[in-house]
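Support request, please re-run this one:
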Amino acid sequence: MKLWIGFAGGLAVGVVGTVLAVSALSTSVPSEAHPPAQGPAFARPGVPHATAPSAPVSPLALMAGQRQSQAEPLRRADASALQVDAVLGRLAADPEAAFDDRALQDLSCSMRRDPQAAAQVRARLLGSSSATERFALMRLLAQDDSPETAALVRGLIGAADHDTKRLGYDLLRSVEGASQRPELTQALLAALQQETEPAYLSELIGSLSRRSLDDMGRSVAAQRLQSILAGSHAEARASALLALPQLVDAPTAAVAVRQHLQDPDATVRLAALQAALAMNASTLDADVVSMARRLSLSASEPEAVRSVAQVLLARAALPRGS
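Re-run finished. Output below.
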């Protein structure tokens, strides 16, 4: 009995000692925190939104086969060129998989505050032959609201060869939503003055109509739109008409609408009706209303033209101020 009590007492002392030792050890070694990613997800084409999972090991360290003690190194403004090169190399090797890459998301977050990283992405874009990789790189540059990227857009869309120019317009679509820099607006105005291909003209006109222009910019755009409206390309004329309410004064827009309600191309007549709908009802004079009524009743007109003409007539019939 005494032997059993002695054994039990020794065991209890040993357990207490072990618990105290573990407790002391846990308080002497700080735990590492791995905060979840806070930046925007880097979406895969066709997938609306995907949030990167939080992980204690960054993809950069995984690529090197090493574990690191701090997560998200690319969120710092001082991410090294070698780190950026590693991420871009991963992107080039497997563009599809890279859309889910945590490091690529981190690089996207650093675009606005890391000029060196943005420069590396621009250089990689110019050297890439993969459409999927270029798409991903342009998504990265959409976060870069810098004069250098605006200058790149201007240089590409002003190129002579079709492939380079197409790349420029693709990049323009990526960056124009996030960038209101005057350098990009000036690039668009300069390209509008020089561009002759109808499809590209339509893109430029649409981009400019979504931007805030000063008086000088509106004047330049209005002069060019007038020359496009007098040209032979129906697609460009239609685009110019749709942009008139945003880019020119109301009397000038009304004159152009009235003229092109009689355009020989149905697409242009439809654009003229749509431009009239976008204008203040007080600018719709009797001639415009009369032309719209004739179009709404013409059996030879496409259904779309007749329908929009009827909507315009209904609006013109409303009391002023409605």
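The first helix runs from residue 2 to 28. Residues 262-322 form one domain.
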